[in-house]
Batch of 2 targets.
Target 1
Amino acid sequence: MSTITIKNALKKYGDITVIEGLNLEIKDGELFTLLGPSGCGKTTLLRMIAGFNTIEGGDFYFNDERINDKDPAKRNIGMVFQNYAVFPHLTVRKNVAFGLNNRKLDKKTVTEETDRFLRMMKIDEYADRLPQNLSGGQQQRVALARALAVKPDVLLMDEPLSNLDAKLRLEMRQAIRNIQRDLGITTVYVTHDQEEAMSISDTIAVMDHGVIQHLGAPKEIYQRPANLFVSNFIGRSNTLAGRMENGSLILEGSRFTHEFWVNIPDGPVKAAIRPEEFLISAEVQTGIPGTVTDTIYLGMDTHYMVRLESGEEVLVIQESTLADNYRMGERVWLTLNERKINIFTEDGNRNYLRG
Amino acid sequence: MTKKTFKMDIWFAITLGLLLLYLVFLLFPMGNLFRMAFYDGESFTLKYFQTFFTKKYYTMTIANSFKVSTAATIVSLIVGVTMGYLYSVYEIKLAKTVRMCIVLATMSAPFVGAYAWILLMGRNGAFTVFLQNLFPQVEIPSIYGFGGILLVFTTQLFPLVFLYITGAMSKMDNSLMEASVNMGCSGVNRFFKVIVPLIMPSILASGLLVFIRALSDFGTPLLLGEGYRTFPVTLYNEFVGEVSQNKGFASAIGIVAIAITCAIYIVQNIATVKTSFAMSALNPVPKKKPKGLAAFLVHFYIYLVTGISILPQVYVTYCSFRNTSGMLYIDGYSLQSYREMFGKLHRSVVNTIKIPVISLAFILVFAVLIAYISVRRRNALTSSVDMISMIPYIIPGTVVGIAMVTSFNKPPLILTATTTIMVISLVIRRLPYTIRASVATLQQIPLSIEEAAISLGASKLKTFARITIPMMSSGIIAGAILSWVTLVTELSTAIFLYTARTQTLTVAIYTQIVRGHYGVASAMATLLTAITIVSMILFNIVSPEGDITL
């Protein structure tokens, strides 16, 4: 078991700096997710921890031990790859035993431990098959069993679910979460799928351009994103340009007030309103007027596209009701759930609602 | 900073070792060749080149080589493309046997074909005599000279085109064919407007390959050329010729040869880059059953071409069982020739197995190591090893032979007349092909598999031995079998290096033919053919879907 501390990490490919001055602390036993669009540096950072990428600057610690120059084979990490990386010429059992054999354990221990993890990952019935005869989900279970069998201090997972189909992905997500909790192993998880990150993580670091944009618990990241990038990347969000006047928000000509906003200075702002933070109504004619341009009924929810008078189109999601849906071309008014919406500086770099 | 420092590890040591070997056994001999060509013992000189380019006797040989190679390329392309196309779109009876025979035709020793055609169509050839009796007043066309060389080149080299074309056709999606019919383009029209442009990269690549092979082929014009002198034969004669043994001049010719192949290689690269595009077939073109007259014509054409190209092997095999008396075949059949081969010439049989086996072992080890460092450990040092290893690809075998024999005949390294020098030459010549094949195999193995092994605590060497090599093995074995066949049938380098102790079957066949011992020569050629057939069957078992790349 291990904490991971990263101080002032620097990564360069040739003359291009990919990561600079990155600091991070990962608590013992937590599932820590690096989340971001492709090219944001999340996999690079993971591979620096694993030892497969060189570290151009800064210090990486497992507990108190600096591991910058430690041979990747000796870091005692378990790693799970996007393409499974199961050894195709070895049986499932031999795959799982591979790491244990490198640890020079006696035969009996190797067999016992192998069996334990084969059972834990529910692949004991395929133990003597070659990986090519297994489905993607089963192969990823082999990879996970193999990584866990060596009792690593740290488990690293590089987009482990993105090669699986949707149903398997949900199933594996749950399996990973359960086993990680049971074993209490410090895990760094890389993904670009924000829903996956939300559902699995204790802590998420949202990355973009090699910089951690927001580090926090899933709920905090969703409800009070640090900046407009995070707000748009996590979940869906409508961004409208507005103006603050004496603690009130002027949006599309309408005025909204809330006690949270009294200290926001006057001037232009960006308001980020999630689709479910709008309230739509044709009867109560207050708020922002607009016209329905599309209605999508999805069972539990109904999605409306509404064109505001400024020409801006916003997405509104309402719980479906028994009454008729608003139809295309119908005139509607939008009000806000003021407690929930976020107001950012005009450049979108800071959230006024975070202390 | 990271780019310039090399990581000191086991792979760094291996890279240095490989570089050292290449310095001694490739760069030194090649440097020596240049020195001999430009230095006459006292000062820098261009006199050898001057002699070569001013005497018609020599410039003629280049013109001849180009003429016959160009003609061979054109005919091989016509035959190879039509054969490949028909083979791919029609259900042919005995298709597998046809393919096997075609492959065999190109894998036979370089001049067995030529020799067999002499037996058939030479001055006393079986066919010539037969025709002469039939039409006493007609002059039978001679197998010697331009026509004969062209015939042998074509039968031996069109299979290369055939293999490339069938490979390209199998990557063509049927929807392309259906789409063109849909838009009103079918039959011959479709062949020229859709299919030919799509397989153009393969046509060009195979055409240039045929051209290079024809240009550097040594055995065929040696036997069939007579008055028609080609470049590689001149090179050989200038070097070993008893009258004018002039190493400087031979080296200069060697350098001219390198310049020519270099130029062709560059043209080939430009042409492939300009015309290549990726294709992959979800639904390959289904083979259809030809009907009526078409069925007859298609089968007739394919069987005829296959028959002609396999005829030499069949006839040589037949001859090997005939009785001989001195230089003549006489009535009756026996194993006399085989007894003679395994008797006084058994050494060449042993050498033909021994030398290629040793070479192959070195080739495999080096190819895997070089492929690994050039794919997985890319830096300035490994790149230079990779680049140096490709040099022999563009150097004709005869030139490698000359460079070797002239460089290791004095201290500190005296290797002439040893098995070692034959092995070294074969290893150096064949390595580029095996390295390319290993690189292709290695590139298909995701890096993460090796990283997984390392993260599980395996050392670099252990990862390589336990994970990388086993994963490469199927590709390596298939490549090894092909290499084996080319090593067994190698002539152009061996002929410069052999001695009575180290002579191989190919060299022995040549010397026996020159001395007129046709019976033994047939038996040896048959043995070579048998080795080739067995190897090809093995290849098909190891890699049923494998592309044959030569």
Note: Chain B is about 75% helix and 5% strand.
Target 2
Amino acid sequence: MLEKADQVFVLLLHWLVGYLPAAWRPASGVLLCVVAIIAVYPTLFALAVLLERKGLGRMQNRYGPNRVGPFGILQPVADGIKSLTKEDIVPFNADALVHFIAPLMLVVAVFMGFAVLPMGRNMVLVDLDASLLFFFAMGASTELSVFMAGWSSRNKYSLLGAMRAVAQMISYEVPLLLSTVGVVMITGSLSLVDIVDAQNRYTWGLAHWNVFKPWGLAGFAMFVIASMAETNRSPFDLPEGESEIVAGYFTEYSGFKFALFFLGEYVGMFGIAGLGTSLFLGGWSSPLAVLSWVPSWIWFFSKVMVWICFFIWVRGTMPRLRQDQLMNFAWKFVLPMTLLNLLVAAEWRFVADMWLRWIAGMVIVVGAYVLMGRVGMRREHFGPRTYRYAE
Amino acid sequence: MSVVFFVLTAMTLAGALAAVLLKNLVHCALSLTVAFAGLALLFLELDAQFVAFVQILVYVGAVAILVVFAILLTRSAETPKAGGVFSRTWLAGLSVAAAVFAVLGWAVLESTPWLPQTTEAPAADVGQIGEALMSRYVLPLEIVALLLTAALIGAVIVAMHEKDGAQ
Amino acid sequence: MIGGASPLAGYLLVAALMFAIGLAGALTRRNAILVLIGIELMLNAANLNLIAFWRYGPHPEVLTGMMFAIFSIAVAAAEAAVGLGLVIQIHRHAKTVDVDQMNRMKG
């Protein structure tokens, strides 16, 4: 019974595909999975938007949306209808073709990443050999669509936002990639399915999640920071800082295309949360051996939702960074930490003694954090502020 | 030769042609991205998954972005007023390119009977590539690491140089 | 002709055509960035050749062609970064990126 619940979607797929002639089965199976992904994540997106608006409202001592439906829970529906029926305005001077392609490209690239995420036991669309690389390749192609959106709008706010976004995404992509390399080194595989399987083991009833190890903890912290910057979340939301540059690269978008950008941003968040969950938090495995009867997909989606809630919490708490702080933080703290973390991962891999590797790993991680994060930042003397104009 | 091959070829070559022919440089850079993506798909068609993903990550994710940054920083997006986009010696350049293509195409077509015909896909998973990189190709790997470091430092120096003069 | 023969010939022809397009772009355009774009196209054509030869060659298991392609991609990335840095530097000095006007060495 419990196994049935665990595999309910897989069984459902087999049952549905079973009605078709044998020749069509593989293709239609893939198609059904794609349809499921395209249906599930926008639903989660609606939920997350509501959660974000309500949660932020609570954090800022206000109600948040409470007009549509009981407690305002139908607000996403109203928003959806509004954005679908609004007029789609393209600026007179805009590059119409590029302006049109940009949001589509963003959404397609963002959804492609889900093809390799294991969302439960046996629940992965394609088990690629290099699925981590595939995910990052798709993530990298979103940068270009952001640039296309900003440039084609022929608006200086859009262009500024796009340049900020691209610079930020490039700078934080390096630590994002490097923070995952430790996991790959220890697991010995680029396949997300293998990485999750390797974490699905228990000692004394506790799971072997990567986050419970020194290199995993440091990597996890760096991954969370870099993923926030990569998805343009507050405190790294300079590309769309509404108090400075209206709405950044999608200032000139309205109606359905704006909704696509909004959707792309949130679905990208789900993607990166799912990736981080698979890499560090054991994917669909349960934290305690006694809880492994809970269906695997519930674990995966609840971890992703907890991650999203953490993003919302941070957004309600932290002020926005300045551009130079953002860059300094990326290149002078996050990047060296991820590089040192590789050292810790190598030490973990090659030191056989259980206690020695724990102690050495902890010493390196904590020492590096104290040196770079505490002492290094204190030495930083802030001179009088200077302004350099763009030209 | 499948339909997929011809579609991908058409996409790649159209992107490449547009990249060298269009007037607006940002459009050129975007068409270049289409060519890169088409090439990555051709690599997939050739069963080289890893290289295809690396191609997308490096070219679409980094090189294309670098190119558009350079275009915006040098204000090349505005088309020049006089003289057109092509060089004065365009005829010579075009004939050289045509001659090169003629020679290459002739060589390929002449050697067709001797080209190998194997069609079964060779296995190349990430593990094998990693082992090859760490054993047989470890020296090139180290040299590339050195080269990338040098390029990184060089690029930083080139970019930093002017800052002192401006302030 | 192409369809009947070895599939390798098709890939080689595509690579040759792409190389020629890149060469033509590098030789005929006036903007230095376009010259770099042409060079990138040529490098990519070479990569296609390497992968095609790896796929249809006699010893795919030693991965020679694939390794060449990977190293070539890494080198091309470095080349693009340095090349574009140089173009930006030239633009700062000469206020132009037109290769026809970069003729101060002319006697």
Note: DSSP finds six helices and no strands in chain B.
